[in-house]
Input
Amino acid sequence: MYKMGYKDQIDLSKLPKHIAIIMDGNGRWAKEKGKLRIFGHHNGVLSVRDVVEGATIIDLKYLTLYTFSSENWNRPKLEVMAIMELMVSTIHKEIENFMKKNVRLQAIGDLEMLPDKCYRELNNAIKQTSANTGLVLTLALSYSSRREILQAAKNIAIKVQRGELAVSDITEDVFENNLFTKDMPDPELLIRTSGEHRISNYLLWQIAYAELYFTPKLWPDFRKEDFYEAILDYQKRERRFGMTSEQVN
Output
């Protein structure tokens, strides 16, 4: 007898346009198995591949993955170097798959801090996939939401100083147009793995009205069916945006 999966229960007409994920737990997953942390990062790549495939199957428009935070540079040097090497090889390998699945790759963050080889490989993949019209997959790399917000404030201040913008003209839209994410809608769903219940300096402005979904699963164990379960949970919630249930319904 056929058992209905989470995907079959999703209302495709009510998908969130944008889902953001904090991929947490690679190191703990490896430690539980008596392996080095990089072993967890390698297996985390398999989860990324599976979730991206899951997103393309349901025709999700935007998926943003917290890949490497600004704070992650403080990790042991060998681990950082291994992560960067893994990133280079993974991006290189995935370009063909991105083209097949019509995925457009983007990246946000202080990208100039990336090693030259990583930066070149990333830009190459972004250029090669730039004409794709399906899922927009954004990697948050060397990313800090506080820095992003601070930089947006500085950009606006410079425009005011130059006389290009009046203080009275500064609105939420103006501010959002100075963020890294200016060309995409705000996430409606934020998923975090590994059982942690915090945001970790990720898309702080953008997730003001996002639904938060926390799962105890460590990232290397997270697969598309878990992704679909999170979407289904999101669809069962009532999104009121400050209004009452009666107003929404």
